[in-house]
TrEMBL record:
It comes from Roseospira visakhapatnamensis. It comes from the Bacteria. InterPro entries: 6-blade_b-propeller_TolB-like (IPR011042), Glc/Sorbosone_DH (IPR012938), Quinoprot_gluc/sorb_DH_b-prop (IPR011041). Residues 63-392 form the Glucose/Sorbosone dehydrogenase domain. This is Glucose/arabinose dehydrogenase. Gene3D superfamilies: TolB, C-terminal domain. Pfam families: GSDH (PF07995).
Length: 401
């Protein structure tokens, strides 16, 4: 099993030698760091998922509306809290001190400090990435992505620089998107919400309601689909999205997958494709909250249909494509957390097609905000609550009832 950092930095993933040794060492580090045998972990619900008996191990309930987590090479985890705090989980405990140097955020509605991601070669660069809602004054804000060096010894961020601003700004606290992922091509992918104004998703000169693709330093790749085309922002990789809050890269293909909230029904899972239009709000499987239809139907020539939809909505947030060793049957499956439905959905894949959906732990854990495969192969999760939970799915002990 490998971390995303290891995978994207080009370290061996399978076979003898360095890759296997690295995985073994890192799994041991994480087991100690995240308190496998510590008093922090407590028993929680159990389930059988695609032949694997699992239990939920609660690590802490001391987070305030956590939004995302990412793992550092030593097995520690960085966790964002929506009100603007960045936290460190290491050595089996949540550091009580928020990390210093985090930029100001507009913590209103769905806004705040959102995703966190480490650079694929973070040991060399020191970079981590944050997405947030940046305050513009007068009740207005926009999605911003920054990178910074995490100074572990000083417990602070330094050398903070803006990677992209999803402008123009917008009023209100809805639909920031803001999920981050490094694709198999080494590029940084960013979802941006349309800020509650569907027409912005179809505006080619507006970065809201889009999937963006950038070099890790924020430069625009020469092979982005709209580079050199008049009237289209070159940062755009695809358009016509509503509010993407889950994204991950497939461990075998390097392809980027993301999901987005629909309105009343019509949540979608999409495969990132260059230059396509996913259709919002012209086409959708959902309806307005009033019950009235939206747009022109479910399909239209020139607009890319979703790979999977949920009607009624589950309110997806967080997406992890399993690449660990603890649960071999899950390899390449998509795991989606749900805020409204309060469950985890496993989507079994056959290439670019969903074969089946399996739902589990429904109602057992609360509102699921984020999922992440840990270096130890466990599936980690965060719950969207004032006493937010960090937990992980681990194999059920043989014979344990």
């Amino acid at each position: 099993m490998s971390t995303k950092c290891e995978r994207l930095a080009g370290l061996p993933r399978t076979g003898p030698g360095l890759g296997r040794a690295w995985r073994a060492v890192l799994a041991l580090v994480v087991a100690v760091s995240l308190g496998t045998h510590g008093t922090t972990a407590t028993a929680a619900p159990r389930a059988v998922v695609d032949g694997h008996a699992v239990r939920v191990e609660v690590l802490t309930r001391a987070l305030s509306y956590p939004w995302a987590l990412t793992f550092l090479p030593d097995g520690a985890a960085l966790i964002t809290e929506r009100d603007g705090r960045l936290r460190l989980w290491a050595d089996g405990r949540l550091d009580p001190r928020p990390i210093d140097g985090v930029p100001a955020v507009w913590a209103s509605g769905q806004g705040g400090l959102l995703d966190v991601l480490v650079h694929p070669d973070v040991d060399r660069t020191g970079w981590i990435y944050l997405s947030l809602s940046h305050p513009d004054g007068g009740g207005r804000a926009h999605t911003r992505v920054v990178r910074a060096v995490f100074d572990r010894a000083g417990h602070t961020l330094r050398d903070v620089e803006v990677i992209v601003d999803a402008l123009p700004t917008g009023r209100g606290g809805r639909h920031f998107g803001a999920r981050l992922a490094f694709g198999g091509d080494g590029m940084l992918y960013i979802t941006t919400g349309e800020r509650g104004d569907g027409d912005r998703a179809q505006d080619p000169m507006d970065l809201a309601g889009k999937l963006l693709r950038l070099h890790p330093d924020g430069a625009i790749p020469d092979d982005n689909p709209f580079v050199g085309r008049a009237g289209v922002r070159p940062e755009i990789y695809a358009l016509g999205t509503r509010n993407g809050q889950g994204m991950d890269v497939h461990p075998d293909t390097g392809a980027v997958w993301f999901h987005e909230h629909g309105p009343r029904g019509g949540d979608e899972v999409n495969l990132a494709r260059a230059g396509v239009n996913y259709g919002w709000p012209v086409v959708t499987h959902g309806r307005a909250y009033s019950g009235l239809p939206i747009g022109e139907g479910r399909e239209k020539p020139g607009m890319t249909p979703p790979v999977w939809t949920w009607v009624p909505s589950i309110a997806p947030s967080g997406l992890a494509i399993y690449d660990g060793d603890l649960f071999p049957n899950w390899r390449g499956d998509l795991f989606v957390g749900a805020l409204k439905a309060r469950l985890i959905a496993r989507l079994e894949m056959d290439g670019d097609r969903v074969v089946t959906e399996e739902r589990f732990l429904e109602g057992d854990l609360g509102r699921l905000r984020a999922l992440e495969v840990g270096p130890d192969g466990a599936l980690y999760l965060l719950t969207d609550e004032s006493e937010g939970m960090l937990a992980r799915l681990v194999p059920e002990a043989p014979g344990l009832k």
